Amino acid sequence: MSNIKSDTSEALTRTGSIQLLWLGLAATVGIAILMALLSWASALTGSSTATLDAIDEDSETVTLLLRTEPPQLDSTRATDSVSISLLGHVMEGLLRFDENNQLAPGVAERWEIREDGATFWLRPDARWNDGIPVTAHDFVFAWRTALAPENASEYAFILYPVKNGELINSGALPIEALGVHAVSDRILEVEFEQPLAYFEELVAFSTYNPIREDFYRSREGRYGADVEDLLYNGPFQMTVWVHGAHVRLEKNQNYWGRDRIRLNVIDMPYFTTDATSALNLFKDGKVAVVDYLGAEQLDEVLQQRWQLQRFGDGSVWFLAFNFAPDRVTANLHLRKALQLVTDPGELVNRIIKLPGNLPGESLFPVWLQGVDTFFRQEHPVQQITLDADAAREHLRIAMEELGIESPPSISLLVDDTPGAAKQAEYFQNLYRTELGIDIRIDRQIFKQRLAKMQSQDFDLAVYGWGPDFADPLTFGELFASWNPNNNGRFINEEYDESVRLAQSSLDPKTRMEAFARQQEILIEQVALIPNYERGRVYITDRRLKGVVRRAVGPDPDYTNAYITPSP
User: Fold this and answer.
1) Which of 373, 402, 481, 532 is deepest in the core (most CB within 10 A)?
2) What is the average per-residue pLDDT within 439-464?
3) Does residue 504 register a pLDDT over 90?
4) Among 15, 16, 208, residue whose Cα is nearest residue 106
5) What total number of domains does the chain contain?
6) Mean pLDDT across the chain, nearest whole number?
7) Are 418 and 293 spatial neighbours (Cβ–Cβ below 8 Å)?
8) DSSP-H helix ranges across 158-269
9) 23 vs 36: CA distance, rounded Å
10) H or E element at residue 423
11) 177: in domain
């Protein structure tokens, strides 16, 4: 889902062994008692205060809220978790994730992966919401569009495994050279740039979604801008989009799998990033889910005995640096100074204070699989020892190299949410107290923060990244020099080589060793300062069942949700 897929609000889960690992690790950071309280509260059988405003059993309607306006619903250019979650409800690719978080047939009813490529056979009943069939040509057009240099897609890189994808995106080849072909309306043939072990997971990601060329061109540059500027081939279709105020999804009667979709309407008439406001909406029976809670709201949740649930959402959060030559943050010694006084454990336990968050140590989260067990168990992180004296010496050297006589003033770009503000103020106080560095907090609405990061208009930024597929590469390639989501423009030749190796090798040991080297380089060069791996607690109306949470793929997923009768 993706720079949270650059979102400092909140969003993303893992189930099974990953969930158990997360909760076990969470206990080691001193929150076992609170986790036990949450389990106790979740087990209670008291009814929710929600009314028919939140859930209408007769019409099979559930009312929710959105954290923020979706910045981009053109699947070729969407990068954030809000947009990707909505696209997951109204669009469908060749494959999808099912209620067990397993890959399942989507538009493709069957497929074959070979060393040199893949073939997908499309189902005959896959249709757009206007009744016209979805064809292989729609995938060819969408993938070419995403890679076209003039489209400036930040996610074009995720199509590089398709033959000639990178050369097309760089302008070296025409889009017609892309290794994807419509053999017929129902057969899609894909050529690989090189053998790879994870293509099935890639085609479930939103950038691989189909787009119908005639409709796209008819919008004259407005594709995805408003409700009438989109065609839908997923379980739902958007019927209302009042920007910044209201989104409404209704069951798509032309969806091939409509019989398994049990909700008729997902209505989202409230937008707020404030957890207290969201909790009040739940308390007043206006919404069925509050997907983000702060430590301040937990007391009331426990007292009310609402249905609390929790999960680790798979995402990592860190301070990102701007490496532009004219920015002070391009100086290694300045970054070292900040690194040596930053304590992720203090941030997690004293500032965030929510169960399940793990102190950050690496770009690669704990749940990623290695060769035989978890990657981070096979390749432990080089630990950073806090040392204020050493930090001040690095700052002294940085000031000499920068030609300044006093510690610099640095801007810190964050979202305009209460949680982001609290973290920003923590860093502001920390760096002023320990190093005398003035941190100027730049709070922006979500969409504007994304724009400022993309234009490199920041020194430091609070940044989150969630996985697009279940492989360490989804994190490792974030800092590759060619990746547009590498907003700070970190460039390291050895790092790039190790990413290329991880992309091309089919040997698990070779790949994991490449990721281990990436982990070392990021710490040695202070390409980022890890903050935390996010755990989430949320509340749900007891009548709403079947909501799927996941780390990989659109989250939350209501395509399997249903309503049970009031008690």
Assistant:
1) 532
2) 93
3) no
4) 208
5) 1
6) 89
7) no
8) 165-169, 199-202, 213-218
9) 11
10) helix 418-435
11) yes
Residues of the chain with pLDDT > 90, as a percent, come to 75
Mean pLDDT on 57-80: 92
pLDDT tier for residue 34 given thresholds of 50, 70 and 90: very low
Tens-digit pLDDT profile for residues 539-566: 999 999 999 998 888 889 999 999 998 7
Is-contact 105 224, C-beta < 8 A? no
Structural domain boundaries, residue 205: 81-227
* SS3 state of residue 522: helix
Question: Domain of 196: which CATH number?
Answer: 3.90.76.10
Say how far apart CA 11 and CA 363 lie, in whole Å. 18
Instruction: Tell me which H or E stretch contains 172.
Output: none
Q: Model confidence at 41, in pLDDT bands (50, 70, 90)?
A: very low
Which residue, 316, 350, 340, is CA-closest to 476?
316
Q: Do 312 and 535 contact (CB within 8 A), yes or no?
A: yes
- Angstrom distances, CA of residue 295 to CA of 13, 49, 358, 416, 436: 20, 21, 15, 18, 30
In the predicted model, what is the mean pLDDT of residues 413-424? 91
Residue 163 phi, psi dihedral angles, 5° rounding: -50, 130
Residue spans of alpha helices (H) in 44-127: 81-90
Say how many C-beta atoms besides its own lie within 10 A of residue 123's C-beta: 17
**pLDDT tens sequence across 521-533:** 999 999 999 999 9
| Model confidence band, residue 72 (pLDDT cutoffs 50, 70, 90) | confident
Residue 405: strand, helix, or coil: coil
Supply the pTM of this predicted model.
0.80
Please determine, for residue 95, whether its predicted confidence score (pLDDT) is greater than 80. Answer: yes
The two beta strands, 265-271 and 61-66, are parallel
Tell me the C-alpha to C-alpha distance, in Å, between residue 84 and each of 81, 89, 127: 5, 9, 21
In a domain, 491, yes or no: no
Q: Is residue 250 part of a domain?
A: no
Compute the radius of gyration of the chain from its Cα atoms. 23
Sole residue written with tokens 């996610």: 155
Give the model's pLDDT for residue 19: 36
pLDDT digits (tens, 9 = 90+) for 238-267: 999 999 999 999 999 999 999 999 999 999
Kindly write down the DSSP assignment for every residue of 297-347, as one continuous string.
Answer: GHHHHHHHT--EEEEEEEEEEEEEE---TTSGGG-HHHHHHHHTT--HHHI
As to burial, measured by CB atoms within 10 angstroms (0-12 exposed, 13-18 middle, 19+ buried), residue 42 is middle
Angstrom distance (rounded) from CA 420 to CA 433: 20
8 A C-beta contact, residue 314 and residue 14? yes
Distance of alpha carbon 139 from alpha carbon 95, whole angstroms: 12
| Tokens describing residue 59 | 């019409």
* Through-space distance between the first and last CA atoms of the chain, rounded to whole angstroms: 35
